[in-house]
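REVIEWER CHECKLIST
Item 1: Sequence provided? yes
Item 2: Single chain? yes
Item 3: Sequence as submitted:
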Amino acid sequence: KEMKLAPAVIEQIVADEWDERIDAVSRTFLGLTVSCARCHDHKFDPISTKDYYALAGVLASSQLDERPLVSDDKVAAIKAARKSIDELEAKLKKITDQKSPEAAEIQASIETIRTATPDVTKPWAHVLREASVYVQPEGADGTKLEYRENEPRDLPVFQRGNPSNPGEIVPRRFLTVLQPDAAVRFQQGSGRRELADSMLQHSSGLIARVIVNRIWHQHVGAGLVKTPSDFGAQGDRPTHPELLEYLAYEFVAHGWDLKWLHREILLSSTYRQASSYRDDAASIDPANEFLWQMNRRRLDIEMWRDATLSATGKLDLAMGGPSQPVNEIDNVRRTIYAKIEREEMNSILRMHDFPEASSHSPKREPTTTPLQQLFVLNSDWMKQQAENLWLRLQQIESTNERIDMCYQVLYSRHVTARELEVAYEYLSISNNTETTSESNPATQELNPDSVDAKWKLYLQALLGLNEFHFVD
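Item 4: Structure as written out by the authors:
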């Protein structure tokens, strides 16, 4: 692949990609900011520049790739067929008259290749392959990337982080502070497998604490360590160190069973507390660091969207399959299957505090903006959900039962007398409807002329209330 940029510029871009991966791996699993050692030894934690480039060598020897989900003996033929199809389709796009004999001939060639290689249409998966990348000059002002298959690469220390100023070459290995024996070097291919083994053998306690803290943060709203991606000297100390130690120990003892960890937290008396306010406790611990109440928290966009679809009876619980844009009106799959693009985040996800996909994010930063409420009030998606909920409720004949069903589905409680009164007032009960008790609006029927419009607006309002968005 040719690029009309100087080699020095491409070298910097490639080095930035390695740095991004080191940052993601080290902060996600180890809770350490290893990327701070790119230009100099870490100023606060015992991580040297050599440690950084020892890990960078592993990533420099591993390349992102795609491969078809078929047996190994078919991969080469399918890749060749797909390459030929891509080249033919590129030629076809350049032809103005798609009905010309030339276009017909290209289309026939494409169909011939697809018929001869039927597996070419099967799904492809993102994988890593063993290959080292080298930046080489190409001509007077160009650059090319050279991939050397099955050839691992040890990187030199880039002085002050500059790839154009290489220093001592560092063998691929784990962090010295966690595996002091510097003689232990990675020898198997890129070293990815050995890196994973080293992390679990020499830093399992640290990894367990990091994982436990992240899951605790997800359920309780705040981590036992408030800096989930920095367990180093600059990170916060745990508010409950004994609890963190207990959960980490038991997590490992139960075979790193995440289901066990979720269950242990969710069944605890701490998690099952209400978010009710108490003056006596607030005067002692206003920040709730000692967890005298549950932190009231808003549902993340994935949970809120799934809860909305579930309430309307439309949530598709099917497992697996391709991703879909989250803003498609007919997309009723769980949000975990939403299409995430690194360079251009979906507007709905960005609006609701979904983290940027282009870099590691320690935790989400919740915001409250007018755009979020405007989305609830005006978006076609919310209008569609209100309509779906109305269709679900039409199976119930009694107005009282319909309204009560709304509150049970959305808020897990029964409607109150005052809420029922407000609902009837908004839904415009006809004055001439026969009633069993004139003083009780709950026994009246709706005016059929405006029933659909009124109900849909009413249900959209219920879907937008804080009681549905927040966990108490």
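Item 5: Key structural point noted by reviewer: The first strand starts at residue 2 and ends at 3.
Item 6: Recommendation: ____
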